[in-house]
Amino acid sequence: MTTFRVGITRDILDADGRPVYDLDALEQTPGVETALVADVEELAPRDVAGFDALVLFKPRVSAATLAGSERLVLVARLGVGVDNVDVEACTAGGVLVTTTPDGVRRPMAAGALAFLLALAHRLPEMDRHVRAGGWERFAHVGAGLDGRTLGIIGLGNIGRDLVRLVAPFEIDVQAADPYAVEPVEGVELVSLDQLLATSDFVVVAAPHTPETRHLLDAKRLAQLRPTAYLVNISRGPIVDQRALTELLAARRIAGAALDVFEQEPLEADDPLLSLDNVILAPHAVGLTDEMFRRSSDSVVRSVLAVVRGEIPEFVLDRRALEHPRARERLGPSVDAGR
Predict the structure, then answer these.
(1) Of residues 122, 235, 294, 329, which has the active-site annotation?
(2) Which are the contacts of 215, defined by CB distance < 8 A and separation ≥ 6?
């Protein structure tokens, strides 16, 4: 039996060289061999040569990466964003691309809720107040969620899970998503403009695509109420960061919580760092032991499905299955799935 070789990008290791994702199940599967690949921004053909599957976190996979690749049939991305993967090039080459939505759904929704509650209860202000020697109990009165309105931009896996998490708080929920076709209990679908103008809390949970780049530009951000809070857990470029910074600095909205930015990491002189009405996180609000565990399980299932000649669960573009390379490896499963 030919060995099924899996390349794993080195950025799954922490500073001490220990893996933060548990992929041991791959190595323990008969006929499967794993190896770490180069720690580079963009993988070159030599980095993926000889591998049947690639498990990656941050390195880019481009059309150039795939040049000359004869064995690669799967790119399994740890996470849900594929900014770093040229899905079209992979599809054209018969390489399946999968993500791990079941691994990040709850941790990211919980992270959004944590941001929302921290803003509502003004926890950063209280923390700074006490550390500065203050004890004015009524100095930073928060906002209860009961009867207020949460607007969710993007009603996908994370947005829907956030709806479930906020249900006990009895907050009204509305969402803007042009692709949402099935009703979600307790959620009113509205236009983006209406959502921005009428929400007390706005959570950005939409994917980053050419259509959503600067979806929240200066004009749209200006529609937010002076008492509104903005939370972005998706991707930085969806929000015009300069316009948002100006809005926050002028106190034209109450505050924001940002896990993502247009440029990461932030420059040392970024004006966001000087503002006291914004909570900042290093693209890590969802990085919990739960996320690592669930994402590890999900990506292992994707790889082992291909090892068995089966179609993985979370294939982004199923057109890749029609390519001769994919059909050669997964032919019976492709025909059975029709």
Answers:
(1) 235
(2) 153, 192, 206, 238, 239
